[in-house]
Known about the structure:
Elements: E1 12-13, E2 32-37, H1 43-51, E3 66-68, E4 74-76, E5 94-99, H2 122-138, E6 144-147, H3 148-151, E7 155-157, E8 165-167, H4 178-184, E9 188-189
Amino acid sequence: MDDSWLTDTPWQVRLLPNMVGLESRSLGEINTIVIHATELPNLAKARQFAEEIHYPGSQTGNSGHFYIDLDGTVECWVTPERVAHHVKGYNRPSIGIELVHPGRYPNWLSSDHQNWDTPYPEAQIEALIDLINQLHVRLPQLHHIAGHEELDQTWVAASDDPDKKVRRKLDPGPTFPWDQIYTNTPLTPLIARD
């Protein structure tokens, strides 16, 4: 492991105990950042979820590489040399950044709970911009950015009515300030935005 991700960094390092089970990769493979919302009320709940084992063979779970709390605190839970499980089909070439945000919590898939109106705190967005720019310096081939909802467009049965369908993933959601990210970072959309 490249220790430069763990020392002399502006982020806090709190590696997941199951990180060693994640597949290794070359840093040169990484070209995209995927933005997520935890859809959980706080960082402690996100940590609890990230430590759960969802893949018995590797003894790993679902998590991003970096987490940004509401106050702008940045934590590294998985180093970029590992392939984290954060977005179906796009894990290998990407870094997952999770923003603490309630989203649709706790009724994620209820048909009457799909509105998303909580804004992201400015401190959190400023920390995200700073992190993206720092990652781009370390990984100059990092050119693209996408939202989780752009890469996972699966529809599933609503939890309150199996005859209704809802989007499995909506994050980072309609309150995420894409224009602010594009203006203040060198990354471009992986998928053209309307």
